[in-house]
Amino acid sequence: MEWLMRMKNAMDYIESRLEEPLNMDEIAKVAYSSPFHFQRMFLLLTGVAVAEYIRKRRLSLAAQELCLSNVKVLDLALKYGYDSPESFSKAFRKLHGVSPSAARDKGVPLKAFPRLSFHLSLKGDKEMEYRIVQKDSFTIVGKSVRVTTKDGENIREIPKFWDRVNTDGTADQLIQIGGGKDILGVCLDMDHAGEQFSYWVAVEAQPDADTQEYETAVIPAADWAVFTSVGPMPDAIQGLWQRIFQEWFPETDYEHAGGPELELYSLGDTHADDYRSEVWIPIKKKA
């Protein structure tokens, strides 16, 4: 219940300041959370990124004002945080399919993006298998791609990235470099302001391994909450991510520590009903 109230308070904070500059750090503070953890939880709970939600809510309110008043497009652009009428018009057209001036015409269809709300629901009827692991820092070797969470680009681009490394032989080479162990999907270097992060397909580097043309990065020491997924990809692991943030975090004394996140994929048929994978999340005790 405490977690639910924190998310509700954060949503109230956002709604009360849609006509003002919004800072992700300040929004997260309202929810007593780190910016990383708050954005991650918001996305998994609602299916939309915080920044995208704010943008769509502002453009939805702007459309209502255009229909109900004679407000100037320039004034609306400045009111909702756009640098120029041109940037506002471009964003408006992308969401509504028409220009701001055309939105004044009677009968023009516009899109409403209503406020989201959080409600308590009964969950937990299915067990979650997890363990707490302390692990020293280690090095990963692999390939990475820089992606953005804007408009769900990461959801589209990461599967394409996996397709490339699986078809061009990269995955097989990495497995050899890693000594035949599991392959990793790693989220690194989160840029909250730019809504970007680096996604790696990698393996844990073995001593004296020949990394060839691949990149390397150090994963810092951490306490990890490790969750097991059983079932075909990608549905099984996507469902697990949702349960972690909807059920596990709210009911424990842990919070996200803000470091990299790992997905561990075992070798085998990823479409099998008994395929096993894991999610590793760095954690710390709640303050």
Automatic annotation (TrEMBL):
One of its GO terms (molecular function) is DNA-binding transcription factor activity. Transmembrane segments: none annotated. Pfam families: Cass2, HTH_18. Keywords: DNA-binding, Transcription, Transcription regulation. Residues 8-106 form the HTH araC/xylS-type domain. InterPro entries: AraC_E-bd (IPR010499), Cass2 (IPR029441), Homeodomain-like_sf (IPR009057), HTH_AraC (IPR018060), HTH_AraC-typ_CS (IPR018062), MarA-like (IPR050959), Reg_factor_effector_dom_sf (IPR011256), Tscrpt_reg_AraC-type_HTH (IPR020449). This is AraC family transcriptional regulator. It comes from Paenibacillus albidus. The lineage of its organism: Bacteria, Bacillati, Bacillota, Bacilli, Bacillales.
